[in-house]
Write a structure and sequence with these properties.
- This protein is an all-alpha fold and 102 residues long.
- It has a domain of 37 residues.
- It is 71% helix and 0% strand.
- Helix 1 packs across helix 2, helix 1 packs across helix 3 and helix 2 crosses helix 3.
- The longest helix is centred in the N-terminal third of the chain and has 28 residues.
- It is globular.
- The model has no long low-confidence stretch (mean pLDDT 75).
C-alpha cells in the first residue's frame, strides 16, 4: 500500500531541506577554510557528514538532545570544517605509485 500523497510530500520536502542544509553547511566550511566560494560535490558530502556527526555530538554534549538548537547548528559547521579539512589533507597527499606527474 502506498502512503498518502500528503505524507509523501512532507518526506520529499524534508529530504530536500536536509540536502540543502548540508550543502549550505559545507559551503560555509569551504569558505572558512579558504578553499574558495565555488561549491562542488565535496562540499555537499562534507556538509552532510559534518552536519550529522558534529551537530549530533554538539547537541548531545550541550544537553539539548535532538532538538534544533544553536549548539547543533554550530556543531554542524564545525563538523563540516573538520571533515572538509581532513578530506583535503588526505586528498592532497602525494600518491605512492601508479601514475607519475607529467
Amino acid at each position: 500500500m502506498r502512503p498518502a500523497p500528503a505524507a509523501r510530500t512532507v518526506e520529499d520536502v524534508l529530504l530536500l531541506a536536509l540536502l540543502a542544509f548540508g550543502f549550505l553547511v559545507g559551503w560555509v566550511a569551504q569558505i572558512l577554510l579558504g578553499r574558495g566560494s565555488r561549491p562542488d560535490g565535496r562540499t555537499l558530502v562534507a556538509g552532510l557528514l559534518g552536519s550529522f556527526v558534529g551537530g549530533l555530538l554538539a547537541s548531545l554534549v550541550a544537553g539539548d538532545g535532538l532538538a534544533l538548537r544553536p549548539s547543533g547548528l554550530i556543531g554542524s559547521v564545525v563538523g563540516a570544517v573538520v571533515v572538509l579539512a581532513l578530506w583535503t589533507s588526505l586528498g592532497s597527499a602525494p600518491s605512492r605509485g601508479g601514475r607519475s606527474a607529467r
